[in-house]
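Extended Data, panel c. Modelled sequence:
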Amino acid sequence: QCHVITVASHIDEVDQRNLPNIYRKLAEISLSRLSQQSIVNCGLVHLDCRKLVGRELSIFTKTLSSACESIRSTNTREMSLYCHMLYALLEEKKESVYTLDQLMAILRESENHIPLEVETVSELLSSLHTTGLIVFLKNNHTPGNSWVVARKGVLLTEVN
């Protein structure tokens, strides 16, 4: 199930008779960016940002909560505590690019509790890569020579 939540301003300025067409167009734009084939029937919640109280806010909160729960329950690649710890370590360090061997040396010296098996760290890096937080270029023949790009912006600014 797909959830599209669109937040827009000045709903009071829109011609109310044209509102269904506007919502349909917003949903089409959102779904086209997600490469979905069809539009899912979604409930509509009108909020006035000048008075965020009342029934509409409760409905919106329930809809948002339901969408988040649905996304969490269908996510096949959950971020583990080890992923969070590894990402925090990468963020803490100043280097942008590492080999897996270099990263393993850093992990051995650090005081965290991330498992020190190359395959486990490689799986954690793959999970972080899948979420888009880092770039992990895995070398299947020589895993220690795999590349970890902790700061992806370096690929745009420092590559010669």
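The longest strand covers residues 97-99. This feature is highlighted in the accompanying rendering.
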